[in-house]
Amino acid sequence: MLGKLLVRYLRPYWPLLIGVVVFQLIQSIASLYLPALNADIIDDGVAKGDTEFIMRTGAVMLLITLGQIAAAILAVYFGAKAAMALGRDLRASVFRRVGEFSEREVAHFGAPSLITRSTNDVQQVQMLVLMTCTILVSAPILSIGGVIMALREDLVLSWIMVVAVPVLLLAVGLIIVRMVPQFRKMQSRIDNVNRVLREQLTGIRVIRAFVREQRERERFEVANEELTDTALRAGRLFALMFPVVMLVLNVSSVAVLWFGAFRIEDGGMQVGSLIAFLSYLIQILMAVMMATFMAVLLPRATVSADRIGEVLETEPSVVAPVSPITEVASQGEVELRDATFAYPGAEAAVLHELSFRARPGKMTAIVGSTGAGKTTLVNLFPGSST
């Protein structure tokens, strides 16, 4: 469902997506080229005392950095514009479809769940698109390009990448596996908080009349505590991710400096090449971390997309007539003949073979005991197509 929604609602904004890819490509190429220029400054400028070479290469680096900044700004702008447009169109579609629902569909989903689906769930899909445009597009470019440029600087130290990248993937992957169930629970917990709060707001007079304030406070505290616990579990795991990444990153950096020092001592590597290799290793690990970070957003966005799709694919049970009556007399007549009504999943009908006529100018009283179906009968008329 996530792929279907993205294809459908991002199709009108394909020029923005092309702009994101182009500018992210420019930014990534600039990021990969800068460490090589820095290595040249160290090896050919500082080591030889060539001030002119340092100034000339530094000016080139400055121009590339300015171009990188401009490309990054434009990529984020186009990505944010596409993501916000997706969210706007998706919310509008959900709102229109809910507006077509009858009482049956609203009761099936529940008003709190429909509110969550049109707000929080749409936001999750929107955030996935935004982070994909700003992070995921550049991650494979930096990873592949970083490996190529690092091997170009020194082939012997490449074994550090072979060890560091799988270790980082394994560590972050284990954290994500534990985070996914918590994110799946969070959406239903948000529904529950909305449901309790909505019931309390709509029934505030009854709650006060029967002095049930304390009981309702306890209900809300339970729902709120469940959501808080789920969010805290996910937050603790998420907070653990960055120290793990920094640990792998710092250990890898120490390994590069340690073994690179022996390479420099043996004459097999220059100082600038070592600094460039370290920069490429950091870029590769950061790109891997960004890609795994997207794996955190994807499961939650997938769940949200499924919930949105359920609303959009549900057809209203009561549809507008082909030739609706747009002009009526000032007074009309309502008549039911052998009307029977049952709620979805109910064992028996609430109304059974009910017939009556409400004439204009006459008062019609609907009398019955509690649970007899008076409210059900009255609610039938606004949703009627006749």
From TrEMBL:
| Gene3D superfamilies cross-referenced by the UniProt entry | ABC transporter type 1, transmembrane domain (1.20.1560.10), P-loop containing nucleotide triphosphate hydrolases (3.40.50.300)
Membrane topology (UniProt): Multi-pass membrane protein
Principal localisation = membrane
Annotated ABC transmembrane type-1 domain residues = 18-300
SUPFAM superfamilies assigned to the protein according to its UniProt record, in alphabetical order: ABC transporter transmembrane region, P-loop containing nucleoside triphosphate hydrolases
Keyword set for this entry? Membrane, Transmembrane, Transmembrane helix
Q: Which InterPro entries match?
A: ABC1_TM_dom, ABC1_TM_sf, ABC_transporter-like_ATP-bd, P-loop_NTPase, Type_1_exporter
Q: Where are the transmembrane segments?
A: 12-33, 53-78, 127-151, 157-180, 237-262, 274-298
What this protein is called in its record is ABC transmembrane type-1 domain-containing protein
